[in-house]
Structure formats: structure tokens, C-alpha cells
Write a structure and sequence with these properties.
The complex is a heterodimer of chains A (about 200) and B (about 625).
Chain A lengths: L8 E8 L4 H14 L4 E4 L10 E8 L12 E6 L2 H7 L3 E10 L6 H4 L8 H11 L2 E5 L1 H8 L5 H11 L7 H11 L2 H19 L1
Helix pairs in contact in A: 1-7, 2-4, 5-6, 5-8, 6-8, 7-8
Chain B lengths: L4 H4 L5 E5 H11 L4 E4 L7 H9 L6 E4 L3 H13 L4 E6 L2 H4 L1 H10 L5 E7 L13 H7 L3 E2 L4 H18 L2 E7 H4 L1 E6 L16 H4 L3 H23 L4 E4 L8 E6 L2 H11 L7 E5 L1 E3 L3 H8 L4 E5 L5 H13 L4 E3 L13 H12 L27 H13 L4 E3 L24 H13 L3 E6 H17 L4 E7 L16 H4 L8 H7 L4 E6 L3 H12 L4 E7 L3 H6 L7 E5 L4 H10 L4 E4 L2 E4 L9 H5 L4 E5 L1
Parallel strand pairs in B: 2-3, 2-4, 4-5, 5-7, 6-7, 10-11, 10-13, 13-14, 15-16, 16-17, 17-19, 18-19
Antiparallel strand pairs in B: 1-8, 6-12, 9-11, 20-23, 21-22
Helix pairs in contact in B: 2-3, 2-8, 4-6, 12-15, 13-14, 16-21, 17-18
The chains are: A alpha/beta (about 200), B alpha/beta (about 625).
């Protein structure tokens, strides 16, 4: 199916191994497909997941490539603020950033070798590139929803509700209901509501 | 399983699938009967998806002990008449190269598809080797999908071609294709697959020299038949812009086809070039390429990895006397790593001599805290490495192997000084010790030990080598996602496989200096290594403890307690620096243990007894 260029969008996801970045990518891809939009997603498995940075890509509306290069992403979804900062070169000028504001300091920080960047530094760097920025306390809201990993859904829902994607939050809700196992539904649907509320705040 | 769309889904359904899952669906649509594998990123989801579906009873699946074995079992199954599939990562094909070259001579009547998943960019590998070279060297027709849908379609086509020619066929993916998700349209699954009856024909199937010489000619003839098939293949696509006849052409293969398509749209230059996309890449569909070249003054070849297609096209132009200027690899599009849309667009802009619409990349933000991959909190390898560091320090040379435990190379553990390939910890370690007279401490995992450590250990005993070998037995193939290996507990293997005892194997190979300890028991590991330190000969320590993720997810072990800091100060800080467990974190100036990360292994309590204490959960 050939889509017009206007509907095309490229999304960059970044987070820490074990956080659920790939599940979030799959969920958003499903949401796009439910909304009738062509989707290609790219992931990396294996060694990259051992506590390291996990990046993934979602390309909507007819793109064929399974990966993004620097300067190509229309939207950056960061599930950890340091990784949002590290991933900023992927964002095109004027792009959209939705990021968790809850840090997961890497070992080098615990060892006292390097300081963790301040929230202000992350926001300042993002402002230099992005046209729209939202920081969300995803871990905090995830716990409020009932499970830490559903903090990712808070972020996705907030971005959907803020019209960051070429589909609406109801497609994400449908994806949660069709794609996630029964036992994860309640916390993720709660997270969806928290995300919508956050976007409206 | 019964409701899994990969098996239950019928013609007309569309599903979002991982490239590797699409390969499984393609094999099932082709009626695959026998699947063998050795897991390895980025190929592992293929056998793991088959494992999820195995109760359908349509195919048999085995996790073989290495790729050579997997290839031979699959080749034997194909000789026995079954539609067979063998899967591995790119470096696995080096291990399986011996049977591959001769299987191509004698042929594989039931059909044999060889999946090699290459890893440009070394996401999870020790090299960037381009296995298209093997297709050419061994004589295997090669198909290279670029999308999830093509992964399914080409797998099915590979089976059909393999059975028709009775030759093994290569299906070559790269990491991005294996691990991309895309929409796949389903076709029907055949109700049953017929096997090809085996007729005794030693003059074909037993390649003594006289037979081998004849079969070499048969192989070349069969490859010509494959070439004829590829000339007509739907996996060769030519696109000429409507109403235009540009004299500039681009030929692309593999995943580069995607970046090319996207770059043409992103740069709004679709009308400037004619395109030839090759999905069926070997034997070269020469007629199709020749007719494409006949319309071009200049042509650009785009392919990740080695400039294989580029050389083929240059050779074709020379042979045919075509006055076409051929361009390819340069300082932008190199043999290194992966391509991207922007990279290809920059190259296209130079080729077309138009301004490049790609904005200059912003430099990475400097001095950010690194987040390299690390051994998990509670990983038993960390406990063994701590003990080894305490006993040996920097005196020996540490010979490492392939697995999660290679991550021991990172400070502060620093227990990997060199590494060649699967199993080389023992053999290369022996050679190093012989040449240098330095003590060598080698580390190998349980799956890698069965893969190619056993022969090396036999050699070490046989040739009186001098080495301390630590077998890090975590009871599973951890790095690639907890696939079975012969060392896995019988209860977890079920009826499908039989447990082999590593200790008995080591003894059987003639090792007399052997100890077995629990890896979390710091004192026991330390004492064993101390005892080996000043001894001579082949010394083997088996350190057992289930992989912490496997214990939690599969063995369903419940965590009873976690570690907490009992006393701040020098001992706690020293433990942080020496053990560097990822569960350690800072709470202001104080050291703390992250409750969401601590696995309760209690190695820190043993390493720094006054600094930590246990807290029940």
C-alpha cells in the first residue's frame, strides 16, 4: 500500500535493557496498524540487551528501512532521561521529544566516575533541537498504575494524546487489549489513563 | 500453540511479524519437516519460534550441539527425503563449512535450506563476515530478503528451489532483516509434505574422488539451472520512472534496497534513476543485469558488506564489452557497519551530482556517562570472576570464550585478555601458555563447552598442555535467550532431549584434576582456584549456578531476600569498586542497593561481610 509522503513518520525509541523498550515499540507498531497505517519496526536483540542501551525504530506510512540514522527521527521517545540525551542526535531539527524524567543511573555514576547530567541539562539540550518537548515521571506513574513497566505506556499514551503520531490514543488502547497478556491489561489501561491525563495537564 | 497465528493463521490473514518469525511461517507454508539449529544472534528467534510451535506435530526440531552437527543432521534428513532447514548465525557457517561444501556436491534430495543470519555492525558478534562469499565458494543459490514479507516468501521459494534442484539453498539475512517487524500476508499451509524416497546410489552420494569429480560438474550444471530460475524470479525487480528514461542506474541488494527506496523518496529524486533490486543474488541473473546495464551510462552498486555484487557487475561489463561506468564502495559507503537512508542519500546525491538534502549530523553530546552491556545483577559469572581476580590478580593471562561471560572483559573484573571463536578459550589458551610460559586461566560456558570445548579439552589432555579451565555452568544457553543445551537439567529438557553430565564428560576426556563448586560460594571457588594455582597440567573447575534470568523466568525460583548496606565506609566502597554489581547505586553520598535490581545472590555479603547484610523480602 503506497502512502502519501505527508503521513510518513519516523520514531526513535531509547531506553535501558530490561525496561521494556521493545515491548513498547511493538505496542505502538500494533496501534499504527490498527489505525490502518503501514509500519516497519527495527530492533536489536542479544548482547545489546544486557543492561546496556536499547534502541529501536518505528517507521510509519510506507518507509521500508528498519533503522534510523542521526537527524532522521521525527519523534524521540526516551524511557530514561540520560538515554534521551544520548539519543538526541537521532532527532531532526524541530522534532518531538517525549521522555521519562526518572533517572536510572548507570554503574559509572554509582562508581563516582562521572556525574549524572542534571534534569536542566537534559531539557536544555533537548530544547536546542526539538520543537516540542514533554518530560514525564514514568517510573512514578508506572508504579501508580500498578507496575513499573507500565510507565512506558504512560509515555506512549501521553504522546498519542498530544497528537504526536498519525493516529489517536484509541488505537493504542486497542493495541493494549489485543497484544498484551490478560494479567498486564489492568495496569496498562490505568497507565493509558494516567498518560492521557498528563498530556492534558 | 493451537491458537498461535503463525500456525493457525490461514490464507488472507495479515500479521505483524519479526523477520525471523516470518521465516518460520514461510518454512511451514513450504511444508518443512526437519529443523536443526545452533542458536546465535541474530538467528535465534527462528528455532525459538519453531520450539513454540513444535506441538503442532508437523516438523521435528532439534537444538544441535553446534552448527556442523546441525548442518549434518539436516543434510542427512534431506538425504533421507525430508524438507529440511538448518539455522545459524554467520560465524556458525564457518563451523558448518565442511559439510556445506560437500553437501553441495552430493545434493540434498528432500531439500535443504541453510539460513545464515549475518551481523553487519557487530551488534552481537565478533566479526562482520559476509556470508554471500560462502554462497559463491560452496555453490549455493542465495536469496536475500529485505522485508518481513520477503523473509516469508523467499523461505518458501528457497524450499521449492532446493527440492527441485536437489541442491542446498542459502537464505541470507542480516541483523536488521531478522529483527525487523513488518506486515506479512499469509498463504495456505499444505496438509502434508511428501518425502523423497531414498534410492541407494553410491556413485552419487559417496564422494570418493572419482564420484566427487563428477558431482563437481553436476553442481555447476545445477547452478546454471538456478541462474535460469533467477532470471525469471519475482525477487528481481526493475523500476523505471514513469515517462522518463534516465541513463543513470542503481543496483542494490540485501537491506540496502530499503535504504535506497527511502532515500529516493526522502531526496525527492525518484525520477532521476532507474533501479534494479536483487533479492535473488546468486547465481547472478546475468541476462537481467545485462539488459539493465544496456540502458545505463553509469551505474551505482549499493550493498552492505563486501563489494561482491560490485565486482560481479564490473566483471560482467568487462566480459560483455559494455561501456558502463560502475561505481560502488567509496569513503562514504564502505565495507564497514551498516548503511542508512541518509548515508545512501548522500551517496546518491554525489552520484547524481545534485545538492545533498540531508542536514549535517549533529555531533554526539560529549562526556555522557557510558552504559555498556554488563553482567546482570546476581550473575554467577561475576562471583567467579571476583574470586579469580582475588586469587590470581594480573599474573595469569585470561583466555575468554563466546557468551555473556565475555563481558568479564570490562573493569573492574577484567577477566578476558583474548578471544578467537567458540571453544578457543581452551585451545588458544593452551597455545598461549606453551609459547609464553605464563599461567593461563580460561573461561568457557556450558553450551560453548558442548559446542566446541570438548575436542579442545581432549587435545589439552592428549598433548600435556598446561591450563586452568573454569567451566561457567549456568545450566542454559544464556546469551541467546535460554535455549537448551546438553548440560541443561533433565526436568527442563523434558522428553525431547537427554541431559549430559559435564563432570562425567570432563572425567571421560581424561582430566584428573577436577573440582566442582557452587559459583555463588565465594569461599569454595576461591579454595579450588588456590589449589590449582601452583599445580601443573590440565586443571578444570566446574562452577555451577543457574543463570539468574533463567532461574527467575523459567525455573520460577522465588527470591527470599535481598542485600542491604549494613555499614557505610571503606569496605562498602571497596566492594562497589571490586564487584561493581549493577544493583549498587548512590543514595546521596551513601552506597545503597537498588531493591528493584538486587537478585539476592549475596555475593557482596561474602565479599564484604561487615558492609552488607541480608534483609528478608
Amino acid at each position: 500500500m503506497q502512502q502519501s509522503k505527508q503521513q510518513r513518520q519516523r520514531i526513535y525509541f531509547t531506553g535501558v535493557g530490561g525496561q521494556g523498550t521493545l515491548t513498547a515499540t511493538d505496542l505502538l507498531a500494533q496501534a499504527a496498524i490498527i489505525a490502518g497505517i503501514d509500519a516497519v519496526a527495527g530492533e536489536v536483540h542479544g548482547m545489546a540487551q544486557r543492561g546496556g542501551v536499547v534502541e529501536s525504530f518505528l517507521l510509519l506510512g510506507g518507509w521500508r528501512s528498519p533503522r534510523l540514522d542521526h537527524g532522521e527521527a521525527d519523534v524521540l521517545l526516551g524511557f530514561e532521561p540520560l538515554e534521551t540525551l544520548r539519543g538526541l542526535p537521532y532527532l531532526r531539527s524541530g522534532g518531538i521529544v517525549f521522555s521519562s524524567s526518572d533517572p536510572l543511573p548507570p554503574l559509572a555514576v554509582s562508581l563516582g566516575q562521572v556525574p549524572y547530567p542534571t534534569t536542566q541539562a537534559v531539557e536544555d539540550a533537548a530544547k536546542k533541537v526539538a520543537g516540542q518537548i514533554r518530560f514525564i515521571p514514568c517510573r512514578t506513574l508506572g508504579l501508580e498504575a500498578g507496575a513499573l513497566p507500565s510507565g512506558n505506556t504512560v509515555l506512549l499514551a501521553a504522546a498519542c494524546a498530544a497528537h504526536a503520531f498519525p493516529f489517536e490514543v484509541d488505537a493504542l488502547e486497542a493495541a493494549i487489549k489485543t497484544r498484551l497478556p490478560q494479567k498486564l491489561q489492568a495496569s496498562n489501561l490505568k497507565a493509558l489513563e494516567l498518560g492521557k491525563a498528563f498530556a492534558a495537564s | 500453540m493451537e491458537t498461535d497465528p503463525l500456525f493457525a493463521g490461514g490464507k488472507g490473514e495479515r500479521h505483524l511479524l519479526l523477520g525471523n518469525e516470518a521465516i518460520v511461517r514461510g518454512a511451514i507454508e513450504a511444508g518443512v519437516q526437519v529443523v536443526t539449529c545452533y542458536p546465535g544472534t541474530p538467528s535465534s528467534e527462528v528455532p525459538d519460534t519453531f520450539a513454540r510451535l513444535r506441538r503442532c506435530g508437523r516438523f521435528s526440531l532439534e537444538y544441535s550441539v553446534n552448527e556442523k552437527v546441525a548442518f549434518e543432521v539436516a543434510a542427512g534428513a534431506a538425504l533421507g527425503g525430508a524438507a529440511s532447514l538448518v539455522t545459524m548465525k554467520h560465524v556458525g557457517l564457518n563451523v558448518a563449512a565442511d559439510p556445506m561444501f560437500t553437501a553441495a556436491y552430493i545434493g540434498t534430495p528432500g531439500g535443504l535450506v541453510v539460513l545464515t543470519a549475518d551481523d553487519p555492525g557487530c551488534h552481537s558478534s565478533q566479526n562482520e563476515q559476509d556470508n554471500r562469499n560462502y554462497a559463491r565458494a560452496a555453490g549455493l543459490p542465495c536469496l536475500e530478503p529485505a522485508s518481513a514479507l520477503e523473509a516469508k516468501e523467499m523461505t518458501r521459494a528457497a524450499f521449492l528451489l532446493s527440492r527441485r534442484l536437489q541442491q542446498p539453498v542459502m537464505l541470507r539475512t542480516t541483523t536488521r532483516v531478522s529483527h525487523m517487524r513488518g506486515v506479512v500476508d499469509f498463504d495456505d499451509i499444505p496438509s502434508a509434505t511428501t518425502s523423497v524416497p531414498f534410492n541407494r546410489e553410491p556413485g552419487r552420494f559417496v564422494p570418493v574422488p572419482a564420484v566427487a569429480l563428477r558431482r563437481h560438474k553436476a553442481l555447476v550444471q545445477n547452478m546454471e539451472k538456478a541462474r535460469d530460475a533467477f532470471e525469471e524470479s519475482p525477487f528481481i525487480q526493475e523500476r523505471i520512472p514513469q515517462g522518463k528514461s534516465p541513463k543513470l542506474g542503481v543496483i542494490a541488494s540485501g537491506v540496502a534496497r530499503n535504504y535506497l527506496a527511502d532515500a529516493l523518496v526522502a531526496g525527492d529524486i525518484e525520477d532521476s534513476v532507474r533501479i534494479l533490486e536483487l533479492g535473488a543474488t546468486w547465481p547472478l541473473p546475468e541476462k537481467r543485469i545485462r539488459s539493465f546495464l544496456a540502458s545505463c551510462d553509469r551505474v551505482l552498486v549499493l550493498e552492505e558488506g563486501d563489494p561482491i555484487l560490485e565486482r560481479d557487475v564490473r566483471a560482467l561489463c568487462q566480459r560483455e564489452g559494455l561501456p558502463v561506468s560502475v561505481e560502488g564502495k567509496d569513503e562514504g559507503v564502505t565495507v564497514f557497519g551498516e548503511y542508512s537512508t541518509s548515508l545512501v542519500l548522500r551517496r546518491l546525491a554525489a552520484f547524481l551530482n545534485v545538492p545533498c538534502p540531508v542536514e549535517a549530523p549533529r555531533p554526539p553530546i560529549p562526556d555522557l556517562p557510558g552504559r555498556p552491556p554488563n553482567l546482570c545483577p546476581g550473575c554467577s559469572h561475576r562471583a567467579v570472576y571476583l574470586a579469580a581476580r582475588r586469587v590470581f590478580g594480573d599474573e595469569p593471562v585470561y583466555s575468554s570464550d563466546i557468551g555473556c561471560y565475555t563481558l568479564g572483559l570490562l573493569p573492574p573484573l577484567r577477566t578476558a585478555d583474548f578471544l578467537v571463536c567458540m571453544g578457543s578459550s581452551i585451545t588458544a589458551g593452551c597455545g598461549f601458555a606453551k609459547a609464553s610460559n605464563r599461567p593461563v586461566v580460561a573461561f568457557i560456558g556450558d553450551s560453548t563447552f558442548f559446542h566446541s570445548g570438548m575436542t579442545g579439552l581432549a587435545n589439552a589432555v592428549f598433548n600435556r598442555h598446561n591450563i586452568i579451565l573454569v567451566i561457567l555452568d549456568n545450566g542454559t544457553t544464556a546469551m541467546t535467550g535460554h535455549q537448551p543445551n546438553p548440560g541443561m537439567d533433565q526436568n527442563m529438557l523434558g522428553d525431547a532431549a537427554v541431559h549430559l553430565d559435564i563432570e562425567a564428560v570432563v572425567k571421560g576426556l581424561g582430566v584428573t584434576q577436577l573440582r566442582k563448586v557452587k559459583a555463588y560460594n565465594l569461599k569454595a571457588v576461591t579454595e579450588a582456584l588456590e589449589a590449582f594455582k601452583n599445580a601443573e597440567g590440565v586443571r578444570v573447575l566446574i562452577a555451577t549456578e543457574p543463570c539468574v534470568l533463567y532461574a527467575r523466568r523459567t525455573l520460577k525460583k522465588r527470591q527470599a531476600a535481598m542485600a542491604v548496606v549494613a555499614k557505610q565506609g571503606a569496605e562498602a566502597d571497596a566492594c562497589l569498586k571490586e564487584l561493581a554489581c549493577p544493583a549498587f547505586c548512590r543514595d546521596g553520598e551513601n552506597l545503597a542497593v537498588d531493591a528493584t535490581l538486587c537478585s539476592g545472590c549475596m555475593v557482596c555479603l561474602q565479599a564484604a561481610p561487615t558492609a552488607f547484610k541480608t534483609q528478608a523480602l
